[in-house]
Amino acid sequence: MTTPPYNSTQAKPATVTLQTLRKMKQAREKIVMLTAYDASFAAMLDRAAVDIILVGDSLGMVVQGYATTIPVTMDDMVYHTRLVARAQQRAMLMADMPFMSYSDPQRALENAARFMQEAGAQIVKLEGGGDLAAVVEKLASNNIPVCAHLGLQPQSVHKLGGYRVQGRDPAAAEAMLLEAQAMQAAGADMILLECVPAALAQRITDSVSIPTIGIGAGPHTDGQVLVSYDVLGISCGRPPKFAKNFLADLKGSEEISIEAAVRAYVTAVRQGRFPDATQAMA
Questions:
Q1: What is the per-residue DSSP string for 173-238?
Q2: pLDDT tens string 8-31
Q3: In the predicted model, what is the mean pLDDT of the chain?
């Protein structure tokens, strides 16, 4: 019989905090993030010393089977975040705000409050740049930590015309740099950079005092994130170029298990071995 790692009658151990992550950035210690959508995966990521567990709206694709993240609802996200919160102990718990849940500052505040009160999230992530400054300011002024998501924004896939690298030309790169700085000025606590050239990701990372997390953004961000299903090679369809199947890499090892694959990912990020040139997007 499996014993739950945590229940409501026990006190959770100290978790990773925003202060922890800022100190890691200052010390140039890599931050490790992975996605989880249920209690079992959350407990495993915690045991593997992942710093941030992201309940991503990617669940729409890898769990629910949709072609994009757009159909995912607030109720979906609150439900899955609540499941993860029941097992999460050390790691910080981040939740994605789904499509149209933050279309104006007041709506964003109400939905972010649901994540904090009903689901147990400790920080919320939203896609968008300078045009969301008022939203970020509203959340920050109400003591809700925020991670701004720049670069490729999956909720805007139809407008972008597909999943493409962002910020390749000088004008777009400069605009993204300014957006990152605007998000910090508005009160964002972290920035996630998806599918941007490594050189641009490094410029942004060096220009802000808050931690940056990369996915398909090269090795120079303060940390890395992947969808856990991609780490295990069990995603539907073709995996993105920036992903790596760490479970397959264990072939011939003494221990071949899901948890060993997660630990291999954690170690590779901590040691600066992931991502490498194989995962380069631009």
A1: HHHHHHHHHHHHHHT-SEEEEES--HHHHHHHHHH-SS-EEEESS-S-SSEEEE-HHHHHT--SSP
A2: 444 455 689 999 999 999 999 999
A3: 91
Q: Which two tokens stand for residue 176?
A: 């993204």
Domain extents in the chain = 18-279
SS3 112: helix
Task: Please check whether residue 89 is in contact with residue 119, taking contact to mean a CB–CB distance below 8 angstroms.
Answer: no
- Position 15 scores a pLDDT of 84
Low-confidence ranges of the chain (pLDDT < 70): 1-14, 156-163, 280-282
Tokens of 268: 């590779």
What's the pLDDT tens digit per position in 24-51? 999 999 999 999 999 999 999 999 999 9
Superfamily of domain 18-279, CATH level 4: Phosphoenolpyruvate-binding domains (3.20.20.60)
pTM over 0.70: yes
Strand partners, 94: 54, 123
DSSP secondary-structure letter at 1? -
What lies within 8 Å, CB to CB, of 19 at 6+ separation is: none
Q: What gap in Å lies between CA 210 and CA 148, rounded to an integer?
A: 11
Q: Do the Cβ atoms of 191 and 204 come closer than 8 Å?
A: yes
What residues act catalytically?
194
CB 87 within 8 A of CB 5: yes
Nearest one of 3, 69, 1 to 39, comparing CA atoms: 3
